[in-house]
Specification:
- The chain has two domains: about 10-235, P-loop containing nucleotide triphosphate hydrolases (Rossmann fold, 3-Layer(aba) Sandwich), CATH 3.40.50.300; about 240-495, Rossmann fold (3-Layer(aba) Sandwich).
- About 30% of the residues lie in helices and about 25% in strands.
- The protein has 15 helices and 25 strands.
- The chain has helices spanning about 15-20, 40-55, 70-75, 110-125, 135-140, 145-160, 180-185, 255-260, 280-295, 305-315, 320-325, 340-355, 365-370, 380-390, 415-420; strands spanning about 10, 25, 30-35, 60-65, 85-90, 130-135, 165-170, 185-195, 200-210, 220-225, 230, 250, 265, 270-275, 295-300, 330-335, 360-365, 395-405, 420-430, 435-445, 455-460, 460-470, 470-475, 480, 495.
- A hairpin with a 4-residue loop joins strand 10 (about 220-225) and strand 11.
- The chain is elongated, with a radius of gyration of 29 Å.
- The protein starts with 8 loop residues before the first strand and ends with a strand.
Length: about 500
């Protein structure tokens, strides 16, 4: 068989976009970047030209939609400069008074003349990278679809003959020839902006087409910041398998570890289920603290609680989480769903695992993740993919799931068997005029666990886990009732953390 010649790629200046493109845009080809106004086409195009400038390659920006001053203002808003990038604008002359540059009225020029003007400027500048913004303005110069196609073909043949990489922008304001334009392009990248009912708009992109080259299909979230464009590639869990020791992670409380059948197994997901205030986050903190004491790095993602509240509560439990965060032994992130896209959240988790080698990840809570982004249609599937990825990396994952009401609702908002390998059920119960807390393990895929129900308490000196409660009734009904001794925690197996 003949040897396959590797396809040369042009880096975009956006590392994560290059990852989706499997190395970048094919060199010497014509690429279409399309999306409605405001989706980020110009910003991505400028990032591509700046990358070319840093690599010592000459770039040319041909604009038919805005003048040079507007383009410079866009670049300046990101802290960039257009120095070293040739810019040629074809805009109404009244917008260019005082400028010494060739300007034309697009509405008064035939399409063929405008294309010829573009070709002449490319020959004059002889760039390696060209951006044409936007093809929609060319489309307005003729109502003849055949003439438009012929001129675009002529421009394509000219560019291919020069081995020049070209990025054409299209704002999709005229839909009648979009499909035909796709057929003429080597690749098509689609940008989309989704307005939420509350919070920041969500931006995403996908590679609709790329001839003869591999790429990652599907939608990928991205964000535009002042400094750069951040793309969050969609997660494919099966691409991240790794070898790891499926040992157990202990909590530091032998009674709790005994209840869990020795501890939490690496490469599994444990869900802590119970009503608000029953101690789910405290148990998660217990495992985080134990991991830090062993010299392991932990990551904590909070959708509900501020860091100040978490730090104060951790001190009340004898756990100084703030010190661990300051020492970079715990990575704490406040996840704000009204500003955060699902793809960005997954990317943040990946960075904690891949860059900082997090061995335990806590997500608090799953309810907020699922309920505060109602516009998203596949959050449960996306979360399942994330959990599979974490399992493949040998991470101990703890999900916190709050049930409705004080006593809890046995109808859970998610399928526990779908999301978790182990399920720990926490309940309030009444005994001798006090509201107390019980803990039990109802599921563990990776081994034998204790079937008993134990009481646990939270004290200023830590967490206490008591002996088995023998006279506990109705735990699975959501209204458990204890009919035994007044103080079930009194016994030889009581421990504090």
């Amino acid at each position: 068989m003949p040897e396959t010649i590797p396809m040369e790629k042009v880096q975009t200046g956006i590392p994560e976009l290059d990852l989706i493109l499997r190395g970048g845009l094919p060199r010497g080809r014509i690429h279409l970047l399309e999306g409605a106004p405001g989706t980020g086409k110009t910003t991505i195009a400028l990032q591509l030209l700046i990358q070319a400038r840093e690599e010592g390659r000459k770039g040319l920006y041909i604009t038919l939609s805005e003048n040079v001053k507007e383009l410079e203002a866009t670049a300046l808003s990101h802290g960039w400069t257009l120095d070293g990038i040739a810019v040629f604008d074809i805009v109404p002359v009244e917008a260019q008074l005082g400028r010494q540059q060739s300007v034309l009225y697009p509405s008064e020029v035939e399409l063929g003349e405008t294309v010829s003007l573009i070709i002449d400027r490319i020959e004059e500048e002889n760039p390696e990278l060209v951006v044409i913004d936007t093809v929609s303005e060319l489309r307005l110069l003729t109502q003849d679809q055949l003439s438009y196609r012929r001129q675009i073909l002529a421009l394509k043949q000219f560019l291919q003959g020069r081995r020049c990489t070209t990025l054409i922008l299209d704002d999709m304001t005229q839909q009648y020839s979009t499909t035909e334009l796709h057929s003429l392009m080597h690749s098509v990248i689609v940008l989309e902006q989704i307005e939420r009912s509350y919070g920041a708009a969500r931006r995403r992109l996908r590679i609709a087409k790329m001839r003869g080259a591999e790429y990652q299909s599907g939608w990928h979230d991205f964000a535009i910041t002042r400094e750069n464009v951040l793309v969050f590639p969609g997660l494919i869990a099966e691409e991240h398998r790794s070898d790891f020791d499926a040992a157990t992670m202990e909590s530091g409380l032998s009674a709790l570890d005994q209840l869990m059948g020795g501890g939490l197994t690496h490469g599994t997901t444990t869900m802590l289920v119970g009503p608000s205030g029953v101690g789910k986050s405290s148990i998660a903190l217990q495992y985080v603290t134990a991991a830090v004491k062993r010299g392991e790095y932990a990551a904590y993602f909070s959708f509900d609680e501020t860091f100040k509240t978490l730090a104060l509560r951790s001190i009340a439990l004898g756990i100084d989480i703030a010190e661990a965060v300051d020492q970079k032994r715990v990575g704490w992130r406040r996840a704000n769903p009204s500003r955060l896209s699902p793809g960005e959240f997954v990317w943040q988790v990946r960075r904690e695992v891949e860059d900082r080698n997090a061995r335990i990840v806590v997500i608090d809570s799953l309810n907020s993740y699922l309920s505060t982004m109602p516009e998203e249609q596949a959050l449960a599937l996306q979360m399942h993919e994330l959990l599979t990825y974490l399992n493949n990396k040998g991470v101990v994952t703890i999900l916190i799931l709050a049930q409705q009401g004080i006593i809890g609702d046995v109808q859970n908002p998610v399928d526990l068997s779908f999301m978790s390998d182990s399920v720990v059920l926490l309940r309030f119960f009444e005994a001798e005029g006090e509201v107390r807390k019980a803990i039990s393990v109802v599921k563990k895929r990776t081994g034998v666990h204790e079937l008993s129900i134990r009481e646990f308490r939270l004290f200023p000196d830590g967490m206490q886990v008591g002996p088995q409660l023998m006279d506990f009734r109705g735990v699975l009904t959501g209204v458990p009732e204890y009919r035994g001794a007044a103080d079930p925690l009194l016994g030889s197996s009581v421990e504090s953390g």
